[in-house]
Amino acid sequence: MDLIGLYPMWYEPGIGSGWVVGFIATIHVLFSHTSVGAAIFFMILATIAYQQNKPELLDFIKKYGLFLLVFSYILGSITGPGIWYSTTVASPRGISSLIHSFVWKWATEWVFFVIEVIGVYMVTYLVGKVDQKTHLKLTIILGLASYTTMLIILGILSFMMWPGKEEWFSEGGYLLGFYGENTFAQLAMRTAFMFSMTAVVGSIVTAGFKDQVFRAQMNRWLALAGIGGTVVGGLLFYWYLNTLPEYAHLIMENRLPAWFAPSLYSILAAMLVYFLMMMVTPRAITTWVAATATVALVVFGLWPEEVARESIRKPYVSGQYVYSNQLIARDVPGMGIKSEIPLVEAHGLLKTQVFMPENLRTVTPDNILQVGQALSTQMCSNCHSLSKTGIRPIGNYIGKNTDIPAIKVYLKAALTTGNTLYMPKIPLQDDEAEAIALYLANLNDPTQAARHKAEKSAVAQAVIKE
Ligand code: HEC
What we know:
The chain is mainly α.
């Protein structure tokens, strides 16, 4: 019999692994988008500074550049590998699917990233120290290299949602996987919004300026970039929605909370108000106000956006063939990949997983709770936290139910058949469903396991007496 080599699961008690990845990724979006936006902004400012002889703009580049070195580059370089570490343990096969398709793309991205990091140091520290033409060239190299990193990463991100072309499934090949319609729509929308982020973060920098005229001038420039980015980004969002597969729309309509759309409009409106304040009352934008606006942008703008993106690609984590629980959901002949679902259907999860402890492979009254925990951790915890808090807490999702047979019926009806929109098909053998049901019931009422065991041994006693 074939075996399935799922890695042992990383599970973060209290919040679940999904949220850890989410926290890191969300702040990384702020750092990375701000650095790309600022690099392009610097490119424009430097051109104007040298053409129209406005040295104060170079002064601004220097100040914002120094801030970015710590804000985007040091913190970004911590959260970037943080995403690698956390996703590698939370979703090893998701990451593996990306590496198998895009390893050279990533290597290319890394080359441009190195140029970007060296570039930002040079652009910041060489203001006034090299001739104008050289400095302008460096600024342009920084801007273009930064944008290239984004372009490459976005092809990979949109593959996670949906491989570029349907042919990819049968033919493989990175170009078919890389560029889909969604890639460009997402790139355009993020390009616009990165200026909004650059403007909000930039207001932290201008808040420290002593020269009030300069402060007002730079706030105005930033605010204009921010308003442009927000308005255009808002419009591009509709293009982006149109490129999403129908399935994603179905999930959005059914699964995103009702407050989602109004909150999205509110955050866009709030950003526009903030940019107007930057233009009209620049003195009101103190360091604290600007820092609060930045945190608000992350909490109310980026977090919901990342959560929504994660939700609409469910039940998959990558490429519409790796389920979030890491099982391979379909054949991908183009990559020589075979679905694992038939094997699980035939033999169950306990018998087929390489890393399942031997003493859990057969369910007994003594190990059933442990089996339930092992299966729930492996099959559910990527999307549901197994405690009361965190990502989609599973006890609440079964409606605080403690009725083992009822939960088991649900598991067989919904998961074994793959009958939900957003959850994987998880073919459970009868005893496996029972073990999960017991574990879930016990989460809601910790006396359930003991009671179940007592009942079983009473039955066993009765059988022996007969
Ligand atoms: C791919 C991610 C994913 C996996 C894996 C997953 N679920 Fe879910 N589950 C969801 C989502 C998404 C929802 C619906 C969320 C919402 O409505 O807010 C959900 C909803 C539920 C519900 C509520 C009833 C319903 O059908 O909407 C139950 C019960 C549930 N899951 C149990 C489980 C169990 C048990 C497992 C593991 C055996 C599991 N889920 C694995 C994503 C997942």
